[in-house]
């Protein structure tokens, strides 16, 4: 678990280090998730919670801006968020 305020900074650091990876952000009850999949220079975001949506072929700047909005929408009362990292095999 990490504080919600540091999620954007942590995601940005992890994406700088790797070209291909998957990050999953979950609430404490694990009933709402935001999944980020980085492949090369594009990022795909899958939102599953209040709404189920996919955002594909985003640049890192677009993904950062969208993630900020999704964190406020999907995790409104959360102070801590689970962060799960998965490297491709």
Observed structural traits:
globular; six-stranded antiparallel sheet; alpha+beta; about 40% strand; about 30% helix; about 90 residues; single chain
Q: What's the short version?
A:
A 6-stranded antiparallel sheet has the order 1-6-2-3-4-5, with helices on one face.
Topology summary:
Elements: E1 2-3, H1 7-17, E2 20-26, E3 33-39, E4 42-48, E5 52-58, H2 60-74, E6 80-86
Antiparallel strand pairs: 1-6, 2-3, 2-6, 3-4, 4-5
Structural description of this entry:
The protein has 89 residues and is an alpha+beta fold. Helices cover 29% and strands 42% of the residues. The chain has 2 helices and 6 strands; from the N terminus they run βαββββαβ. The chain has helices at 7-17, 60-74; strands spanning 2-3, 20-26, 33-39, 42-48, 52-58, 80-86. The protein has a 6-stranded antiparallel sheet, covered by helices on one side. The longest helix is centred in the last third of the chain and has 15 residues, at 60-74.
């Amino acid at each position: 678990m990490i504080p919600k305020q540091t999620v954007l900074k942590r995601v940005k650091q992890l994406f700088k280090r790797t070209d291909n990876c998957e990050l999953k952000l979950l609430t404490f009850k694990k009933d709402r998730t935001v999944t980020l999949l980085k492949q090369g220079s594009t990022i795909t975001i899958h939102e599953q919670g209040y709404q189920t949506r996919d955002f594909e072929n985003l640049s890192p700047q677009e993904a950062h801006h969208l993630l900020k909005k999704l964190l406020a929408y999907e995790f409104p009362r959360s102070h801590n968020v689970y962060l799960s990292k998965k490297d491709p095999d």
